[in-house]
TrEMBL record:
It comes from the Bacteria. Gene3D superfamilies: 3.90.1150.30. InterPro entries: YjbR, YjbR-like_sf, YjbR/MT2646/Rv2570-like. This is MmcQ/YjbR family DNA-binding protein.
Length: 119
């Protein structure tokens, strides 16, 4: 299991950070995290990344090559992508944007409106 290349991880992290309202942080010593309103929507490790998916997409996504339930976050419907066997970089970008939207919808209304106005 080789994992995603550092260059691809950096490009995907840069994309996530460019989304409206995104903020970057390092947690747990080395995990690069992108959040909105203080809530994570992407965790980028050394050779894989994790993000939230819609409940109805969770089982299907985990059946794809290179995708598995995210350690510690699977119960919240997060997947970990460690290869581009089934998902292209564009598919992963769409997943990251979808994760941001899912997290944004759960924010308090006043905060959600603030970030929606930025978009």
């Amino acid at each position: 299991m080789a994992g995603l290349s550092p260059a691809l991880l950096d490009a995907l992290l840069e994309y996530a950070c460019s989304l409206p309202g995104a903020s970057f942080d390092v947690k747990w010593g080395s995990e690069r995290v992108v959040s909105i309103g203080g809530k994570m929507f992407l965790v980028c490790g050394r050779d894989a990344l994790s993000y939230k998916v819609a409940d109805e997409d969770f089982l299907m996504a985990n059946g794809l090559p290179g995708v598995r339930p995210a350690p510690y976050l699977a119960r919240a419907r997060w997947v970990q992508v460690w290869s581009t066997d089934a998902l292209s970089p564009d598919d992963i970008r769409q997943g990251i944007a979808g994760s941001r939207e899912l997290v944004l919808r759960k924010l308090p209304k006043a905060l959600r409106c603030q970030y929606e106005a930025q978009a």
